[in-house]
C-alpha cells in the first residue's frame, strides 16, 4: 500500500532529492493555451498558464499506476522493492521531482534543463474546464473515481517551469553543449533517459519524466552490467540524435569502437 502524499512539503517522501512546492501552493491559474499534442500518449499535458500575471509552462501529469512497473520486475526483485519506493522511483511526476530536486541542490536549475519553480496541485474540477477549452480528456484517472463527487477525486499534480518563448535551431554547436550538460547531470547522478531533439527547447532539456536519479532502486538490484547499460543509454541516444539530424559536432559521447579496436595490440596469443 502506498503512503498518501502530503502536498505541502518536498516530494517524494523517500530517501534522496526532493522538489519543494511552488511559493504559492494554491495559486490562481489561468490556462492560456495547450503546448503539447492533445492526443499524445506521453506522461503529461503541457500548458501555457499565467500565475499572478507571469506566464509559465505548466506540466500537468497523468495519473500513474505503479503496478505496471512492478510487472516488469523479475524473480525475487519484487520482494526487494516496496510499493512506496516503486511509486517514488517510477511515477513520472516523482521522476521529475527527484531530478529537479537534485538540479536545485547542485545549482544547475535552469542551466542544463529548463528552470523549475516547484510543484503545485490543482483540483479535479479543472478537468472539465480543460476538456471544454482544449479538448484534453486523457488523464488515466482511475475509473472508480468518476463515481465520486468531484471534490473527493484526486488532485492533479503539476510542475511549474519557465516558459521558453523562442526556440533556437539545433546545430552542432548546440548539440555539443547538450552533451556537456548531459555529462554534468550524469556526474550528479541524473540519467535523463530520453535524449531526443524533441525534448529540448533553446538548448535546454524540458522533459525529465523518465529520468533515473540516484539513489535509484534498480541500480541496487540489477547486475553491474545491466546498470551500466541503463546509465549509458543517454550517451548512445545523444549520438543517435546527432546522426539523425546530420549535425557537425566536435564531441563524441561514446568511444569509436572500431577505431579503438584498431589501436589494440594483437599478439600471437591474444584473443580477438
Task: Explain this structure.
The chain is of the alpha+beta class and 272 residues long. Helices cover 32% and strands 16% of the residues. The strands form three sheets. A five-stranded antiparallel beta sheet has the order 1-2-3-5-4, sandwiched between helices. A two-stranded antiparallel ribbon has the order 6-9. A two-stranded antiparallel ribbon has the order 7-8. Strand 2 (44-51) and strand 3 (54-61) form a beta hairpin. 28% of the residues are buried.
List its salient traits:
32% helix; alpha+beta; 9 strands; 272 residues; Sim4_Fta2; Transferase(Phosphotransferase), domain 1; 5-stranded antiparallel β-sheet; two-stranded antiparallel ribbon; single chain; globular
Quick gist of this model?
With 272 residues, this protein is α+β, with helices and mostly antiparallel strands. The chain has a single domain, classed as Transferase(Phosphotransferase), domain 1. The chain has nine helices and nine strands.
The second-level CATH architecture is: Orthogonal Bundle
Record field, number of beta strands: 9
Radius of gyration, rounded? 21 Å
Strand content: 15-25%
Mean pLDDT: 91
The oligomeric state of the chains shown is single chain
Shape: globular
How many helices in DSSP terms? 9
Query: How many domain modules?
Result: 1
For the largest sheet, list the strands in their spatial order.
Answer: 1-2-3-5-4
Q: Classify the secondary structure makeup into a structural class.
A: alpha+beta
State the CATH class. Mainly Alpha
CA-to-CA gap between the ends?
A: 52 Å
Kindly identify the CATH topology: Transferase(Phosphotransferase), domain 1
What does the largest sheet look like?
5 strands, antiparallel
Helix content: 25-40%
Pfam families: FTA2 (PF13095)
Region (Disordered): 1-22
InterPro entries: Sim4_Fta2
